[in-house]
Amino acid sequence: MADLQLRSVEKTYGNGFKAVHGINLDIEEGEFMVLVGPSGCAKSTTLRMIAGLETITGGEIRIGDQVVNELAPGKRGIAMVFQNYALYPHMKVRKNLSFGLTLAGKPKSEIEEKTAEVSEILEIEELLDRLPKQLSGGQAQRVALGRALIKHPEVFLFDEPLSNLDAKLRASMRVRITDLHKRLRSEGRPATVVYVTHDQVEAMTMGDRICVMKDGHIMQVADPATLYDKPANDFVAGFIGMPEMNFVECSFARDGNVPVLSAGDQQIKVLDGLADRLTTSESTVKLGIRPQHLDIVPAGTENAFTGEITNLEFMGHEVNVYARIGGGTFVCVVPSEDYDSSLKRGDLVGLKPEGQHIHIFDVQSGQNVSLGS
Asked: Gene3D superfamilies, per this entry (predicted)?
């Protein structure tokens, strides 16, 4: 296997539209890297440039010790799994799996051995004599995965491979793919993976690290816990996490050494060492707090926002409580065992941020100024 490096990689189309803006990314050998972001952020374009299906217009892509800018896709040592599986409809599963090895002129004994090995790993032995039209979505996806795995490539590329599956199948395939990655690593043949998705659940549960993209720029690259706990900017903070982070613009001042945030006529004194980490001199900032880091308290409680409940969502293990705060709406996630069932729409409640989990963002740049140095 090999590592992967992108250096100042750009993509500009003939009409002058710049899709990718000089991105830099290092992916280690055996790492599972997820590219995630909203539609149009250029994550699939980036993957296709790595694969050689899109030409780059600037920068350098290196797989292992080789610059691959000018190499054809078949010469790059990659295998790609597509969203639509791309199985040959007239070939049975066995032939779909082995076709690449046949084209490469591999001996029949090697082809049979590798086909049997991959079929066992993915538990598709009973499917080998079926045509693609006889497969379910999950079975077809496993065959597509097997066709990539059988090549023993330098890098595996996945382009939203689970988006056509229902929720239950997506969950099981997430586990299957990550288990396969761990198995290969434990057997001493680590698989370098670049996986594209718009689904943050896939990103957070599958990736060793995640690259969050927006409009052809990389916003942050980090492990899932860091993205959740220490988002570099308000875009990452709002994109990662469900329900998404609550935001409200506040005026910012200091009362002695303690920063005070005011949203309209409501005021929060920020404690727990946050004052020492703040790196902004702006008088207006954006406060961010995750729904899981708000506590419901009586209306009027000190250091809590008071709002009117507008909606309640019972989710089984937790309840989402929506409350109107100033001109916006906050959502608070309450574990079911802690939920006060007497609450109803129209009630006034306090929403108290857990001080150590408050984030403060620069209004202009969006950068998280509460992380400190």
From this structure: 2.40.50.100, Nucleic acid-binding proteins, P-loop containing nucleotide triphosphate hydrolases
Burial 113-129 (b: 16+ CB within 10 A, else e): ebbeebbebbebeebbe
Q: How far apart are CA 67 and CA 48, in angstroms?
A: 16
Token digits for 218? 């990389």
User: What is the distance between the alpha carbons of residues 334 and 318, in angstroms, rounded to a whole number?
Assistant: 5
Give Cα 352 distance to the centre of its chain: 29
What DSSP string describes 200-264? HHHHHHH-SEEEEEETTEEEEEE-HHHHHHS-SBHHHHHHSSSSPPEEEEEEEEEETTEEEEEET
Q: What is the pLDDT at residue 151?
A: 85
The answer to whether the beta carbons of residues 153 and 78 sit under 8 Å apart is yes
CA distance 169 to 184: 22
| pLDDT of res. 279 | 66
Q: With a cut of 50, which residues of the chain have pLDDT below it?
A: none
Kind of pairing between the strands at 359-362 and 284-289:
antiparallel
Domains and CATH numbers, the chain: 4-238 (3.40.50.300), 239-362 (2.40.50.140)
Q: Taking a C-beta distance cutoff of 8 angstroms, is the pair 170, 10 a contact?
A: no
Beta strands in the chain (DSSP E): 4-12, 18-27, 32-36, 58-63, 66-67, 78-81, 155-159, 192-197, 209-214, 217-222, 246-255, 258-263, 266-269, 284-289, 294-298, 305-314, 318-325, 328-335, 348-353, 359-362
Distance from first CA to last CA of the chain, Å, rounded? 36
DSSP H or E run through 146: helix 137-149
User: pTM for this structure?
Assistant: 0.91
Please choose, from the candidates 124, 95, 132, 127, the residue with its C-alpha nearest in 3D space to the C-alpha of residue 112. 95
Structure tokens at 190: 């680590």
- pLDDT of 132 reads 92
pLDDT of residue 326: 73
Q: What 3-state DSSP class applies to 291?
A: helix
Instruction: Provide DSSP, 66-83.
Output: EE-TTS-GGGTTEEEE-T
Peptide bond just before 243 cis, omega within 30 deg: yes
